[in-house]
């Protein structure tokens, strides 16, 4: 059986598509935050979104990532 030519860190198609959904969600959240009129609220929300996505960066449970993407 021939060895795979893909590097070990290559995403599967399902992982790639999920990643695209999560990135789209992040962009939509940032776009919505730009509509917030108050500067301090906007900064708070932007920091919150950034930290939440960083905190969940290594999440591999499909249930966790799916709960973020299905609501939008």
UniProtKB/TrEMBL annotation:
<protein>
    <recommendedName>
        <fullName>LYR motif-containing protein 2</fullName>
    </recommendedName>
</protein>
<dbReference type="InterPro" id="IPR008011">
    <property type="entry name" value="Complex1_LYR_dom"/>
</dbReference>
<keyword id="KW-0496">Mitochondrion</keyword>
<feature type="domain" description="Complex 1 LYR protein">
    <location>
        <begin position="20"/>
        <end position="65"/>
    </location>
</feature>
<comment type="similarity">
    <text>Belongs to the complex I LYR family.</text>
</comment>
<dbReference type="InterPro" id="IPR045293">
    <property type="entry name" value="Complex1_LYR_LYRM2"/>
</dbReference>
<dbReference type="Pfam" id="PF05347">
    <property type="entry name" value="Complex1_LYR"/>
</dbReference>
<comment type="function">
    <text>Involved in efficient integration of the N-module into mitochondrial respiratory chain complex I.</text>
</comment>
<keyword id="KW-0809">Transit peptide</keyword>
<dbReference type="GO" id="GO:0005739">
    <property type="term" value="C:mitochondrion"/>
</dbReference>
